[in-house]
Amino acid sequence: MEDGVRRVQTIVRQLLDFSQQHEPAFALTDINHVVDRVVGLDDAPLLPRTESWLETGFGQGLPNVMVDRHMIEQVLMNLVLNAVQAMKDGGGLTIRTSCRRVCLIEVCDTGSGIPEAVLPRIFDPFFTTKSEGEGTGLGLSVSLGIVERHGGKILVDSEVGKGTTFTLCLPVSRERSLMDAGVMKGPQYLARR
How many CA atoms lie within 13 A of 133 on its CB side? Predict the structure, then answer.
């Protein structure tokens, strides 16, 4: 019963997030601190198997970025949980930050990877490849909406049997977002066979 109640709570929360689409409350934020909080919040249950590992690589001297810290934490939590679920038999999870004209946060796993045929649908609302009762198909859709409201993009690079890398690209300043500058349109995918 407790598992059922938790699942219903998760579904309701994700439906509310999906339907309400709040505007971000922007504030200058240290992105390394945001990643550190997400990893710190879930470090214990994150990788329960002894054959799993977690590695972080924080870029040094990164500029603060104008983001809603809570929203970006939610996006990272979704990506981390998806990565962990893709590594059912254990594996490695790496989270890195850097800045190359834009702030980049990479979430890399050594899990099962995403098939090329499925890749274009992963951000569709209610689309999931998980077994019944394991996912709502809203996590990535909500995450994409949040990142786009920040003027950013999500890049996906995946190879079946090798793993997946999600890269959040966030503008350093609010004046020039990636979308407004025409740098990127829509989510970008790269699948390898």
Answer: 3
